[in-house]
Specification:
It contains 6 helices and 5 strands, in the order E-E-H-E-E-E-H-H-H-H-H. With 230 residues, the protein is α/β, with parallel strands linked by helices. Strands 1-2-3-5-4 form a 5-stranded mixed sheet, with helices on one face. Helix 2 runs parallel beside helix 3. It is elongated and about 90 Å long. The termini are far apart.
Length: 230
């Protein structure tokens, strides 16, 4: 309660006790922090699942699933599934029953399962195809037709747009900061080169100028030639 707050998009527990957190991700953060975000969500879920004093074996199998409208790892896979295994021998599985999955709506062409391919295309804005995607599309239209849910949907849409604006503004701010830094560096370089030209005009030896400015002899001679001094 006192830490970083999160709001889960969809939280499901099935008949066998498996827990699913399903998140819709419409834009990638400039920091590309999806992996660490999934780690944090996982830790929050585990903290809620295990009451104080209960044994660790009571932890439910859990899945954190991000449905992305972009390729989060740039490999073209329709689904990226991560479980823990031994680095030295990947056949040794940790078996902590924790799974994190990232669905890539841009990777539908590489999906072997036709239902998954159709779902990914639907998420990517294409027409609903196949039994599952068509049922999903009918449910979406039904939900949107309900006044209360439609208002909640609009609030969620505003929230998604707000997150996108924040991500874009953060990226723009970083770009401006980088530009300012490059501008300062360019200004300092121009000042150093101006000082070198002034020293050349005073007939100060090139070797001495090099020791003072840390410019190479070739760089100083090039500057001198540019200004007709050598």
């Amino acid at each position: 309660m006192d830490g970083k707050s999160i709001r889960l998009d969809v939280y499901v527990e099935d008949d066998e006790g498996r827990v699913y957190d399903i998140e819709m991700q419409c834009s990638n953060s400039p920091k590309n922090d999806l992996a660490k975000r999934s780690r944090f969500y996982q830790s929050m879920i585990d903290g809620e699942l295990l009451d104080k004093g209960k044994p660790y074996e009571d932890l439910n199998p859990s899945y954190v699933i991000f449905i992305c409208t972009f390729d989060p790892f740039h490999k073209g896979l329709p689904i990226y599934t991560f479980t823990h295994c031994c680095k030295e021998d990947n056949k040794v599985q940790l078996k902590d029953e924790e799974t994190r999955m990232f669905l890539n709506s841009k990777g539908s062409e590489n999906a072997a399962d036709p239902d998954i391919a159709a779902f990914l295309r639907y998420v990517d804005g294409k027409a609903a195809e196949g039994h599952f995607a068509e049922r999903l599309d009918q449910e979406v239209h039904f939900v949107k037709s309900m006044d209360k849910v439609r208002r909640e949907y609009m609030i969620l849409s505003d929230e998604i747009r707000r997150r996108q604006r924040e991500a874009e503004e953060e990226g723009l701010q970083k770009g401006l900061q980088k530009g300012l830094q490059e501008g300062r560096q360019e200004g300092r370089q121009e000042e150093r080169e101006s000082n070198i030209v002034a020293m050349l005009k005073e007939k100060i030896p090139v070797e001495t100028i090099s020791r003072i400015t840390h410019y190479s002899l070739d760089q100083i001679q090039e500057l001198g030639k540019m200004h007709g001094l050598l």
